[in-house]
Write a structure and sequence with these properties.
By secondary structure, this protein is an alpha+beta fold. The protein has five domains: 78 residues; 186 residues, Multidrug efflux transporter AcrB transmembrane domain (Multidrug efflux transporter AcrB transmembrane fold, Up-down Bundle); 102 residues, Alpha-Beta Plaits, CATH 3.30.70.1430; 87 residues, Alpha-Beta Plaits, CATH 3.30.70.1440; 87 residues, Multidrug efflux transporter AcrB TolC docking domain, DN and DC subdomains (2-Layer Sandwich). Strands 5, 6, 11, 12 and 13 form a five-stranded antiparallel sheet that branches. Strands 2-3-1-4 form a four-stranded antiparallel sheet, covered by helices on one side. Strands 7-10 form a two-stranded antiparallel ribbon. The protein starts with a helix and ends in a 5-residue tail after the last helix.
């Protein structure tokens, strides 16, 4: 019921009562305070009304939500009751069979400890020495975001207008491809500190955004393949397809060739560029040394200059000032200073013939033209001179497709060894390959440190150095499953896979801790060693399987690869899942066997 209205009436009644049986002076005082009393009564009424209304509204929604959830529960129970019962019966039947068979399997393993440990040791060596080198490696999995860039390069010196007209035709071709949502293009670039040396009016970038698809990976790969086929029909261009990067990593493949001779450096870079294009899985091969801009070179004849009594420095300065200009003075206008540039008129320096007629001795009586003392020719200058560690370097970059970075790097290294390079030229593989080696070395150190810290913690808790050593055996058991499954699923080693291994170092030991701890408790109660090992295995079988199942099921959605960016999450989840499953299965057999061998006490 609403109690705010009766309360308001009661307040008015109380105000009325206050005027009864009062003196005239008191009645006057009450009359003066009457507006405040009425205002207070209305404020009290409004506040109480809002509280009651809010409470009843919340009560209504809670009751409605409860009825809805109850209905959903009843509907779900009616709908899934039969399947749920079948699943539970199947699980209970399977677990019952495992529970019955496990003690017999464990006893047989304890009676044949040499065969069991020899088999597991051989399986571990097979995984590490034979399967692991075939895995391949990469820095980080490539992420498919439904968006990628098409970088188009025209011949150096192409005006931006011509570049844009060519790119518009390419844009129209891509726009009509199935799966393309929108596309944007930018032709030319402003030279800034962040602009690459190979960028200019002859370059353009197209950003292609795709429509939402059920499988972004498949749709993106299909579209990129179609675009590559179309771009081959356009002559006189180079192209490169790249994806927006989540991290500031380099190109997957970068080969650096260092040497002083620019001409030889250009020949070697082009030869390697052609060879890399023939390697399977290597795409978008591009060298930083491209055709340069045309330039006029003036080669002075020192002997002729000497005969005329001229100095090469003075002549070169005169030619430079006439062509480029020289600031002779400044024009001042109030607080502004404007440079006055003095040089030849445009019509006197617009061609090579005009340049040949330049007078190099304006102060002498007999004029001498530039062509008399120098050889003038039009040549092609270097597109850029890039230095790495103070050495002139050519960088050949490329992307990879359908192959691991390590296998591609091995093929490129073979091509480099087969090339004939001068003695003063060197090469090295950089890019993500170099970053990958650095990262994997650091992660290997982190994995070893994680194992060491786990051992130290367990040694302090068990107050023993033997039992933690037994538990540490679960980590190699997990690596067996990880390596074999990664090879079967064609997942290369990467940073995220190593992070999953580091996580495993702290997760897989839990089952062994539970098992060894209960064995010790049974032995403290007076049970014989072998009997305690078998009994602990039977008792701890259910909790070990429960902890493994909860972890695996919790990581299963991540392993399936749902949502954007799944390429990064999936390898880590698969690593933890397969490592935990293999470690659990082998832990139930191997750890009791190792415990029975390492712990020599019989009671």
């Amino acid at each position: 019921m609403n109690k705010s209205a009766p309360a308001l009436l009661d307040d008015f009644g109380a105000i009325k009562v206050r005027f009864r049986n009062k003196t005239l002076l008191r009645k006057i005082g009450r009359a003066v305070l009457l507006p405040l009393n009425i205002l207070f009564a209305f404020v009290k009424f409004a506040f109480q009304f809002l509280l009651e209304f809010g409470f009843r509204l919340a009560h209504f929604f809670l009751v409605a939500m409860g009825i809805l959830l109850k209905g959903i529960f009843i509907l779900g129970r009616l709908t899934f009751s039969v399947p749920t019962r079948l699943v539970l019966k199947g699980f209970n039947w399977s677990y019952g069979k495992i529970e019955q068979a496990y003690p017999e399997i464990l006893v047989n393993a304890l009676n044949n400890r040499g065969i069991v440990l020899g088999t597991v040791g051989a399986l571990f060596l097979f995984s590490i020495l034979i399967v692991a080198p075939r895995l391949g490696s990469e820095l980080i999995p490539e992420v498919h975001q439904g968006e990628f860039n098409v970088e188009v390069t025209m011949p150096v010196g192409t005006p931006v207008e011509k570049t844009d007209s060519k790119v518009l035709k390419i844009q129209e071709t891509i726009q009509h491809k199935p799966g393309v949502d929108k596309i944007a293009s930018v032709s030319g670039t402003d030279k800034t500190a962040n602009t690459g040396t190979e960028e200019g009016e002859h370059t353009s970038k197209l950003t292609v955004s795709m429509e939402r698809a059920s499988s972004v990976v498949v749709a993106e790969q299909r579209l990129i393949k179609s675009i590559r086929d179309e771009l081959r029909n356009f002559s006189g261009i180079q192209w490169k397809i790249s994806r927006p990067v989540l991290f500031s990593f380099k190109t997957p493949v970068e080969v650096e060739i260092s040497g002083y001779n620019l001409q030889k450096l250009q020949e070697l870079s082009r030869a390697l560029e052609e060879r890399m294009q023939e390697i399977p899985g290597v795409i978008d091969v591009k060298s930083n040394i491209q055709r340069g801009n045309p330039e006029v070179q003036i080669v002075y004849n020192r002997q002729v200059l000497s005969n005329f009594g001229l100095n090469i420095r003075d002549v070169a300065s005169i030619v430079r000032n006439k062509v480029r200009g020289d600031v002779a003075t400044e024009f001042k206008e109030q607080d502004r200073k404007i440079d006055i540039l003095v040089r030849l008129r445009e019509k006197d320096r617009e061609s090579i013939a005009d340049l040949r007629r330049l007078i190099v001795n304006p102060e002498d009586d007999k004029p001498i033209p530039l062509e008399a003392v120098a050889d003038i020719k039009v040549t092609e200058g270097p597109s850029e001179i890039r230095r790495v560690d103070q050495q002139r370097t050519a960088v050949i970059s490329a992307n990879i497709s359908d192959r691991s970075l390590s296998s591609v790097s091995e093929d490129i290294y073979g091509e480099l060894q087969s090339m004939e390079m001068p003695a003063d030229f060197t090469y090295r593989l950089a890019g993500q390959n170099e970053e990958m080696q650095t990262s994997l070395n650091s992660l290997q150190l982190a994995l070893a440190l994680a194992i060491f810290l786990v051992y130290i913690v367990m040694a302090s808790q068990f107050e023993s150095i033997v039992h933690p050593f037994v538990i540490i055996f679960t980590i190699p058991l997990a690596l067996i499953g990880v390596i074999l499954f990664l090879y079967v699923l064609s997942i290369p080693l990467s940073i995220v896979v190593f992070l999953g291994m580091i996580m495993l170092a702290g997760i897989v030991v839990n089952n062994a801790i539970v098992l060894v701890d209960y064995i010790n408790k049974l032995r403290e109660r007076g049970m014989e060693k072998m009997e305690a090992v078998v009994e602990a295995g039977k008792v701890r079988l259910r909790p070990i399987m429960m902890t493994t199942a909860t972890t695996v099921l919790g990581l299963l959605p991540m392993a399936i690869g749902l949502g954007d960016g799944a390429e990064i999450r999936t390898p880590m989840a698969i690593t933890v899942i397969v490592g935990l499953l293999s470690a659990t299965v082998l832990t139930l057999i191997i750890i009791p066997v190792v415990y029975s061998l390492v712990d020599r006490r019989q009671t």
